[in-house]
Amino acid sequence: MKAEPQEEHRWLEQLLGEWTVTSEESMGSGGSSEPWVENVRSMQGLWVVCEGQGTMPDGSSGQTLMTLGFNPLTGRYVGTWVGSMMTHMWVYDGEIEEDGKTLALTCEGPDFENPGKSARYQDRITLNDANRRTLTARVQAEDGGWKELMKAEYRRR
Questions:
Q1: Is 7 in a helix, a strand, or coil?
Q2: Domains of the chain: total
Q3: Which DSSP state fits 89?
Q4: CATH of the domain at 120
Q5: Span 6-44, pLDDT tens digits
Q6: How many whole angstroms separate alpha carbon 49 and alpha carbon 69?
Q7: Rounded distance, CA 22 to CA 151, Å?
Q8: N or C: which end of the chain has fewer CB within 10 A?
């Protein structure tokens, strides 16, 4: 079995490199956290692996790991996200939006406002230019609209 990268895989290569990450929460404390560092590498052009580390708002250290790829059989982007601050593994299903710059990744996870229930979430990676991107995390409200939870700014180091 030997898979070859396709055009969709090459879109993900724009994420490769080392990034400084700053973020603001849209709910909760509303404060900014100290900058994190994220290193993004390729696995033979088929997957990108994004490894982040930094200091949590409470002063403890944190780590994150995101995997992203493209499944030609389904025509969808796929991936996962885990963090040292929670036990849930987020499993992504996504697509590039019409602007060609935004990868919208949807997933299901615990509803942080209603313990014991689940909610629909979306992480949106937007390429601003070759050296800047944003990640916006949002949750789907009961009315079907989206509520922003957090926005992170990435700058190439």
A1: helix
A2: 1
A3: P
A4: 2.40.128.20
A5: 999 999 999 999 999 998 765 444 555 689 999 999 999
A6: 9
A7: 9
A8: N
What tokens appear for 95 in the block? 């697509």
**CB contact set of 37 (below 8 Å; sequence gap of 6+):** 18, 19, 20, 21, 52, 53, 54, 157
Is residue 18 domain-resident? yes
Residue given tokens 């036990």 in the structure block = 87
3-state secondary structure of 64: strand
Amino acid at residue number 59? G
Establish if 2 belongs to a structural domain.
no
Would you tell me how many other CB atoms lie within 10 Å of the CB of residue 39? Answer: 14
pTM: 0.92
Q: Which domain holds residue 145?
A: 7-156
Q: What is the pLDDT of residues 48-102, one digit of tens each?
A: 999 999 999 889 999 999 999 999 999 999 999 999 999 999 999 999 999 999 9
Assess contact for 53 and 36: CB atoms under 8 A. Answer: yes
CA distance 127 to 35: 19
Alpha-carbon distance of 70 to 75, in angstroms, equals 7
97: phi then psi, degrees, rounded to nearest 5 = -75, 170
Count Cβ atoms within 10 A of the Cβ of residue 146 and give its class: 0-12 exposed, 13-18 middle, 19 or more buried: middle
